[in-house]
Design brief:
Shape of chain A: globular
Structural class of chain A: alpha+beta
Number of strands of chain B: 0
Distance between the termini of chain A: 83 Å
Oligomer: heterodimer
Distance between the termini of chain B: 47 Å
Order of helices and strands of chain A: HHEHEEEEEEHEEEEEEHEHHHEEEEEE
Largest sheet of chain A: 13 strands, mixed
Helix content of chain A: 10-25%
Number of helices of chain A: 8
Structural class of chain B: mainly alpha
């Protein structure tokens, strides 16, 4: 070895040759821990410019429910000033019309995930969804079922219902739905980082999966949602359950995007039928639902499901709330928009068939059952939905009540 | 640098995406630095974990002076030093046992340097005093200028440069001795 320069060159070569663990492996260990740490100590103060935000529209705070709205994500821009005199939700609605597919990238407390959505041709609801997590877990829908692969257990968990996706596609109706929600706030401002005008929509709901709240950020120029956050509570407290920082829109996507391969030797395990504990208390009022005295569970389930859809077809608001008490806290406008759909040609007009109980489970109140229903829409299409019925025994009386939809409705043809 | 300042600005407002971007941007370099500084290379992931968790906990109050890359690299050096000391306190560590085997498919750099020489440099680096080893790694591997190392380490630039020179000289001496024997 001659001199310092040679030593330095040798050290450079040596340092370049050092083996390090694979990036993916390190990511799995480091990134979720760092994100969790950040969320735990995230400052709860609003940005300094908060005082100059402007609330364009605020209605009474309150709990609102969306039937099977399995939504979406968040934003993270900071608004430091506002420049636009007004921002119309209708602009965003118009901007969303052309897109049938969406790719969302985000983080959740256990890692990162990318989500691919594709809508049906009419762009009314999602039909294909794939969620790919950073730790190898994958969730997807196929042929009316939902699958979740856990690589650590080499197991596929499945359930015969589409429990991920959007019952209302990105577009006019979704935004209309949010607009009618009682808790919706729209705030506008300017993103100091990019100089672009941004609009933020905040909303909270209790759906059949429990309480949820969202913040969605729209680019004021393109009118497209560009980021979203979702919390599993109504007040957006704590770390979000999903924080989508990137949303890309496509006119369509190839089928291959939604192909999922799992090892041939993976175990198959059916997920039990469950309802969130937070919603059970709402189902306990003996005044709601119908008597099940003298009936089998099958008979009682078919009777209450029929009564529910008859109330929907007749647009009987009180009848609907009495049979499905989760609806009771919802604003009537909102309920009309997402359940009755009076101005839409995909509203329910006929009950074709109510099937046998497909699955059963147990909540802390008693047995539950999923009942399939085939329905005809005004546009002539047929859809199949599943409704979860909660059975109760109070004193010496048996009764049942509707919990809500089990997954998203599925088109089954004309 | 401007990007880093913007990322820090967003990070301090709780932006998860900013933290992800910072992590992705500096992960590979910091892994290399940790591997070069640790006597027990199995702790590389732990060092990076601790550095980023600590960094994440500073959200809302992190102040960037100098470069973010330099700050994170020095955090890695501090963690690596603590870990090396902890291992030493626990007792002797057989470096041959704890170091991972070289990859079965060597990269171009490894092909250019024999495995025997890599093993000798591993051992020689482990013999350097911590302060000399850190400055060699921070300067050669992390490409930090002496001025920044001096500022981050709160030493004079001359001291930083001297430690670097002494470190290289000692390495040369160790390797020459090895080669001679």
């Amino acid at each position: 070895m001659t001199d310092r320069k040679d030593t330095k060159r040798m050290v450079e070569t040596y340092l370049g040759s050092i083996e390090t663990p694979a990036g993916d492996r390190v990511d799995e260990k480091v990134l979720p821990a760092a994100l969790t740490a950040m969320h735990k100590s995230k400052p709860h103060v609003a940005p300094a410019s908060h005082s100059i935000w402007r609330t364009i529209m605020t209605s009474k705070a309150g709990k609102v429910t969306a039937a099977a709205v399995v939504a979406v994500v968040v934003l993270f821009a900071v608004f430091d000033s506002f420049t636009q005199p007004a921002w119309a939700l209708a602009d965003a609605i118009e901007a969303l019309k052309d897109y049938r597919a969406v790719h969302v990238t985000g983080v959740f407390p256990g890692g990162t995930a990318e989500v691919w959505f594709r809508a049906n041709e009419a762009k009314t609801q999602s039909t294909d969804v794939v969620v790919r997590g950073s730790l190898g877990a994958t969730t997807w829908t196929r042929d009316g079922s939902t699958y979740h692969y856990e690589p650590g257990q080499n197991t596929v968990y499945y359930e015969p219902a589409v429990t991920i996706g959007m019952s209302q596609w990105f577009g006019p109706e979704l935004l209309e739905m949010f607009r009618t929600a009682q808790s919706t706030q729209i705030i506008q401002g300017k993103d100091p980082a990019t100089g672009r005008d941004r609009v933020m929509l905040m909303c909270s709901l209790i759906d059949v999966r429990g309480p949820r709240s969202w913040v969605m950020e729209f680019d004021a120029d393109s009118k497209l949602p560009v980021a979203m956050k979702q919390w599993q509570n109504l007040d957006r407290s704590g770390p979000p359950s999903f924080d989508a920082f990137k949303i890309v829109y496509y006119e369509d996507l190839p089928d291959s995007v939604f192909d999922v391969q799992v090892p041939g030797d993976a175990k198959r395990v059916e997920k039990p039928l469950q309802i969130p504990e937070e919603t059970v208390g709402i189902l306990a009022n003996p005044q709601d639902g119908i008597s099940a005295e003298g009936m089998t569970q099958q008979e009682a389930a078919q009777k209450i499901v029929r009564a529910l859809y008859e109330a929907v077809i007749k647009q009987d608001m009180n009848g609907l709330k009495g049979l499905s008490p989760l609806c009771r806290n919802w604003g009537d406008d909102f309920l009309r928009k997402i359940v009755f759909k009076p101005d839409r040609d995909d509203r329910i007009v006929e009950i074709i068939e109510i099937g046998q109980i497909l699955r059963t489970g147990q909540s802390s109140l008693g047995p539950i059952a999923a009942v399939p229903v085939t329905l005809k829409l005004k546009n002539g299409k047929k859809v199949q939905e599943q409704m979860i019925v909660q059975f109760r025994s109070m004193g010496d009386r048996s009764s049942c009540v509707i919990h809500g939809p089990y997954g998203i409705a599925r088109e089954i043809g004309q | 640098m401007i990007e880093d300042r913007f990322l820090i600005w967003r990070f301090n407002r709780g932006d998860s995406a900013a933290l992800c971007r910072i992590y992705e941007k500096y992960r590979d370099g910091l892994l290399k630095a940790a591997a070069a500084l640790l006597n027990d290379r199995s702790g590389v992931e732990d060092v990076l974990h601790d550095v980023f968790v600590e960094f994440a906990l500073s959200v809302g109050r992190f102040e960037l002076r100098g470069s973010l890359k330099g700050y994170l690299a020095v955090c890695v050096a501090n963690r690596a030093r603590d870990r090396n000391r902890m291992v030493r306190r626990r007792g002797s560590v057989d470096l041959v046992e704890v170091r991972p085997e070289p990859a079965s498919v060597p990269g171009p750099e490894l092909e250019a340097m024999s495995r025997e020489m890599v093993a000798k440099l591993d051992a020689a680096m482990a013999e350097l005093p911590d302060e000399q080893r850190e400055i060699i790694v921070l300067h050669v591997q992390s490409k930090l200028p002496f001025r920044e190392i001096a500022r981050l380490r709160e030493i004079s630039i001359n001291t930083a440069m001297s430690r670097y020179r002494y470190g290289l000289d000692k390495l040369r001496s160790i390797l020459n001795g090895e080669l001679g024997s």
